[in-house]
Amino acid sequence: MGSAASAPAHRHGASTEAVVVSAPFAAHRRPVDQINDVLREWYIWSRSQSAETGYPSINVTCKLWRCSRQYDDANGAFEADAHSVEMEVVDRAIEGIEHPHRGALHALARNLVTGLSVWRSGRVDAVDALHITAQAREMLAKRLGISER
């Protein structure tokens, strides 16, 4: 039933392969790998957010207008919206963690994205960095509901 052969037909050329392939493996991954993936995705998402300008970004006379979303299933907009909502949840979870653990998570996320271990938080002593990073991972896992199975 969950195989690619029994997957529903593609609409407008949209692929369901990512859903069929990734969903079963997510539950069987180690929590540390899940947290690393979440941090990597969150860091990329957070860098794509624009900085506040101090001015409203929406005109009050037309803020309720919405463009048609009839083709959003084909162009990936629904998936992008869902991903953005997920990343906002992760962002709130990270921002709810106090320093120095939050700084350790920021540095870890940057290291995961770059593939290097050169970034570190200035608020975390180099001697305690591994311990604080491990604690921060556990705190984030608890906030996101990722646990050992």
Would you mind describing this structure in some detail?
This protein has one domain (30-49, 56-144). Helix content is 54%, strand content 0%. The protein is built from 6 helices and no strands. Residues 1-25 have low confidence and may be disordered.
User: Which class best fits the helix and strand makeup?
Assistant: mainly alpha
Order of helices and strands: HHHHHH
In whole angstroms, the N-to-C terminal distance is 24 Å
Unreliably modeled segments: 1-25
Coarse shape: elongated
State mean pLDDT (0 to 100 scale): 75
**Assembly level:** single chain
Number of strands: 0
Mind describing the biggest β-sheet? none
- Gyration radius (Cα, Å) is 19 Å
Counting structural domains, the number is 1
Number of helices: 6
Helix content: 40-55%
What percent strand?
under 5%
What labels describe this entry?
149 residues, mainly alpha
SSE layout:
Elements: H1 17-26, H2 31-48, H3 72-75, H4 77-95, H5 101-114, H6 129-144
Helix pairs in contact: 2-4, 2-5, 5-6
Write a compact overview of the structure shown.
With 149 residues, the chain is an all-alpha fold. The protein is built from six helices and no strands.
